[in-house]
């Protein structure tokens, strides 16, 4: 469907319903006219002709600028909008190099090669398809190949021996290509360009790991005589030069002035209605489920023939949305149910490829998906995107909305708010979402939990030298000392050698999943259904859990956490399951402190001990708790970074009765976790919290928020640096909520291990008022003393 008026798409979403009051804000984004530029003369005629054959006869201005910089030997980060042709910025120079290499301008063992790195296999394969279509029958000598976990042994061997344009992901680099670099020497010796696509995705601990994977790659390329140019790309990244330098360790120039055209767009902020039945936890009002609301919107758009992606945060949510939309479509026309399905991580490779094909070829009109399709997979002809709940960052939201409306076509983006403090705040304050820049990408390569394993991996690849420590940055010397003390490295005249038999690369889990994925197996057939992340498996595939796969529900018969296997069987229970846990926290080291009068704000290292102790069975639809079942799972301990604030006893007493203190602190903790993503490139699932009226390490009321990754991810540090703004926003969001006593839109949390009890909404506002007043008084005192 093509339309020049994006509001037409929105009218289809509202058609036949009384939903106009749910539309909290509508933003119109005007179309953008293109700025053209000529091809750089250094690009060979045959490469320009190949582009001409697919309709690209001239470039947009930013493409020409980027290509010129790359051809001049400078590393570049291209930060322009979705569908702005960023791929040509690296493909054209790469193809120029490969065609020159074919003509014998270099020795055979130095034949140029190109490495393309994407955060997901789906994106890498999409890039491979586009490259093959471009060069097929037009450019001989270009030999592309995908190298990832889906390869056969024969395919990987062919790529090592023959490919000169390899598309892959950081995981394959880390675990296979770099440890086995001697077998890839031909490819590494000729490495001319390295492309890091969707670079905004490399944030937090994952980004910190990838930064060291890149440094290991640079080190090995230099060992074989190569000095590649890096080209990074992203449609949604703040401070692109800074991020690119942190990822690569190189000086990188930014190209940001977008010269591509863009069709008109409409962005709708949508809030489900309150259900005034007091059916939430502890009798609180709730809103209609964002999943149910989004299923209505998706079904209406599919009926209208509008090709739509619906992004959902969780695997289970994607399955539930697709099933709900299918039920609604079945009431209209049973044949329409075949036009909607799901796409998420955990599917087997052949399932993912088939779904991608049917969407590209128009056999599907509606797809409920997780972020697996967020990252640049080029599916032409999409008209609308429905995002179920704020995805954690503005960058992710705009990336998702950018999947629709390619070139000059109109598009619609709908954000359906969840019953969540941040979502509620954003739909009520659209300027905080649509009028603000995307968040700075937070990563910390100096994190010792990240740095140490990569130093070990690098030492196994090649002996470490003093020059290498400079490459790996601050903390490298201390990391090497720790590895020497542990006996894992040994000093020799040629450098530092790895001493152990096991693979050093296995020490670093770059996705920070906490260990190998848990295998989910059908107990009746023995078939592998999918996988669950190790870090979340205790809560998602424990014994008795409801597991959903491709629209079918299963019950977990047995979870063996030591072997990493969950055995399930098909069932159709009338309930869902929610895990409950117990969390304790201890302060290990205080690195930074800000005195706010009777309040104190701190940052440092903490130990978090967490144990899943039971799960709730809730009736589908009403959410009624049917039973709580105990679980016997081990305690897991995480050493990480945290931020915490304390308040003296007299300051607490000035605002609250003693009986109200635990619930007030608990409510403030929940809301502050929910609002931190406004300031840091995280979502609430990246962080955790604990609150207590009297903590043994501080002797005061204390509220903690911590990074949910070993060694920290930089989010707690960002919270410390912007503490007053963070707590003021939290206070305002709680106070503005229209509920009386607290609800999921302000202080209740879906991840609370204590069943959201106790919570005191009014007390949380009073408590935060006192903390913020102490901050203002401290600021005035500082000014008066100057």
Topology:
Blueprint (H helix, E strand, L loop, with lengths): L5 H9 L8 E7 L6 E2 L7 H9 L5 E2 H11 L4 E3 L7 H17 L10 E5 L3 H15 L8 E3 L6 H10 L2 E4 L1 H8 L7 H5 L1 E6 L7 H20 L5 E5 L6 H9 L4 E3 L9 E6 L3 E2 L10 E2 L2 H14 L4 E4 L3 H18 L7 E4 L5 H12 L5 E4 L14 E5 L5 H8 L9 E6 L4 H8 L1 H5 L13 H14 L4 H7 L3 H10 L3 E4 L2 E4 L19 E5 L5 E5 L1 H7 L5 E4 L2 E9 L4 E6 L4 E22 L2 E21 L5 E6 L5 E12 L1 H5 L7 H15 L11 E6 L8 E7 L7 H7 L1 H14 L24 H24 L2
Parallel strand pairs: 4-9, 4-10, 5-7, 5-8, 6-7, 8-9, 11-18, 14-16, 14-17, 15-16, 17-18, 21-25
Antiparallel strand pairs: 1-11, 2-3, 12-13, 19-20, 21-22, 23-24, 24-25, 26-27, 27-28, 27-29, 29-31, 30-31
Q: What does this 3D model show about the protein?
A:
The protein is of the alpha/beta class. It is 36% helix and 23% strand. Residues 103-109 have low confidence and may be disordered. It is globular and about 80 Å long. The strands form seven sheets. A seven-stranded mixed sheet has the order 1-11-18-17-14-16-15, with helices on both faces. A seven-stranded parallel sheet has the order 6-7-5-8-9-4-10, sandwiched between helices. Strands 26, 27, 28, 29, 30 and 31 form a six-stranded antiparallel sheet that branches.
Summarize the main sheet.
7 strands, mixed
Identify the overall geometry: globular
Radius of gyration: 27 Å
Number of alpha- plus pi-helical segments:
25
Give a quick precis of the structure.
With 786 residues, the protein is α/β, with parallel strands linked by helices. The strands form 7 sheets. It has a 7-stranded mixed β-sheet with strand order 1-11-18-17-14-16-15, with helices on both faces. Strands 6-7-5-8-9-4-10 form a 7-stranded parallel β-sheet, with helices on both faces. α22 crosses α25 and α24 (723-736) runs antiparallel to α25 (761-784).
């Amino acid at each position: 469907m093509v339309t020049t008026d994006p509001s037409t798409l929105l009218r289809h979403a509202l058609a036949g319903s009384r939903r106009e009051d749910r539309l909290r804000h509508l933003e119109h984004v005007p179309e953008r006219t293109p700025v053209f530029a000529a091809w750089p003369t250094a690009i060979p005629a045959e490469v320009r002709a190949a582009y001409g054959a697919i309709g690209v006869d001239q470039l947009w201005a930013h493409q020409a600028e980027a290509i010129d910089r790359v051809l001049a030997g400078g590393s570049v980060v291209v930060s322009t909008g979705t569908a702005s042709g960023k791929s040509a910025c690296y493909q054209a120079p790469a193809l120029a190099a490969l065609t020159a290499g074919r003509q014998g301008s270099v020795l055979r063992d130095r034949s140029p090669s190109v490495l393309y790195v994407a955060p997901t296999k789906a994106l890498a394969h999409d890039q491979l398809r586009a490259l093959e279509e471009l060069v097929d029958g037009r450019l001989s000598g270009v030999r592309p190949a995908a190298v990832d976990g889906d390869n056969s042994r024969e395919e990987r061997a062919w790529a090592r021996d023959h490919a000169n344009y390899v598309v892959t992901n950081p995981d394959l680099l880390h675990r296979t290509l770099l440890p086995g670099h001697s077998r890839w020497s031909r490819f590494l010796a000729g490495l001319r360009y390295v492309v890091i696509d969707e670079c905004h995705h490399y944030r937090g601990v994952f980004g910190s790991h990838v930064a060291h994977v890149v440094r290991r790659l640079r080190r090995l390329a230099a060992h074989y005589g190569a000095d590649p140019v890096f080209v990074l790309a992203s449609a949604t990244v703040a401070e692109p030069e800074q991020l690119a330098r942190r990822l690569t360790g190189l000086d990188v120039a930014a190209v940001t002035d977008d010269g591509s055209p863009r069709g008109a767009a409409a962005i709708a902020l949508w809030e489900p209605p309150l259900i005034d039945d007091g059916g939430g936890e502890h009798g609180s009002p709730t809103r209609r489920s964002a999943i149910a609301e989004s299923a209505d919107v998706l079904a209406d758009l599919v009926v209208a023939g509008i090709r739509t992606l619906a992004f959902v945060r969780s695997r289970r949510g994607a399955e539930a949305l697709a099933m709900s939309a299918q039920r609604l479509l079945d009431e209209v026309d049973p044949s329409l149910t075949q036009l909607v399905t799901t796409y998420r991580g955990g599917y087997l490779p052949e399932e993912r490829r088939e779904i991608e094909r049917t969407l590209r070829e128009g056999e599907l009109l509606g797809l409920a998906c997780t972020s697996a399709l967020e990252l640049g997979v080029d599916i032409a002809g999409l008209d609308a995107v429905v995002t179920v709940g704020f995805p954690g960052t503005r960058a992710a939201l705009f990336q998702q909305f950018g999947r629709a409306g390619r070139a000059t076509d109109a598009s619609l983006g709908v954000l359906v708010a969840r019953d969540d403090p941040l979502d509620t705040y954003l739909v009520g304050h659209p300027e905080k979402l649509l009028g603000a820049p995307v968040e700075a990408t937070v990563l910390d390569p100096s994190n010792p939990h990240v740095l140490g394993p990569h130093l070990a991996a690098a030492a196994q690849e090649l002996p470490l030298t003093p020059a290498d420590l400079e490459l790996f940055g601050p903390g490298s010397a201390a990391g090497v000392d720790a590895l020497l003390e542990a006996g894992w490295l040994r000093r020799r005249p040629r450098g530092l050698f790895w001493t152990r038999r096991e693979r050093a690369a296995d020490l670093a889990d770059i996705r920070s999943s906490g260990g190998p994925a848990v295998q989910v197996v059908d107990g009746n057939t023995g078939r592998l259904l999918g996988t669950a992340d190790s870090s979340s498996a205790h809560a998602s595939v424990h014994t008795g859990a409801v597991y959903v796969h491709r629209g079918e529900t299963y019950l977990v018969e047995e979870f063996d956490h030591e072997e990493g296997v969950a055995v399930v069987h098909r069932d159709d229970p009338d309930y869902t399951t929610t895990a409950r846990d117990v969390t304790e926290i201890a302060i290990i080291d205080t690195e930074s402190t800000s005195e706010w009068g009777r309040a104190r704000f701190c940052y440092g290292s903490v130990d978090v001990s967490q144990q899943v102790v039971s799960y709730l069975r809730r009736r589908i639809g009403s959410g009624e708790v049917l039973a709580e079942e105990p679980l016997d799972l081990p305690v897991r301990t995480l050493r990480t970074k945290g931020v915490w604030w304390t308040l003296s006893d007299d300051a607490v007493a000035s605002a609250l009765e003693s009986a109200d203190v635990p619930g007030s602190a608990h409510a403030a903790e929940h809301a502050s976790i929910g609002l931190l993503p406004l300031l840091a490139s995280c979502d609430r699932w990246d962080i955790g919290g604990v609150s207590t009226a009297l903590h043994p390490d501080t002797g005061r009321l204390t509220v903690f928020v911590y990074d949910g990754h070993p060694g920290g991810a930089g989010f707690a540090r960002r919270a410390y640096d912007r503490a007053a703004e963070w707590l003021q926003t939290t206070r305002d969001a709680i106070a503005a909520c229209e509920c009386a006593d607290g609800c999921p839109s302000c202080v209740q949390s879906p991840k609370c291990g204590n069943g959201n009890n106790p919570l005191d909404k009014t007390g949380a506002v009073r408590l935060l008022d006192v903390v913020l007043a102490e901050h203002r008084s401290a600021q005035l005192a500082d000014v008066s003393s100057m």
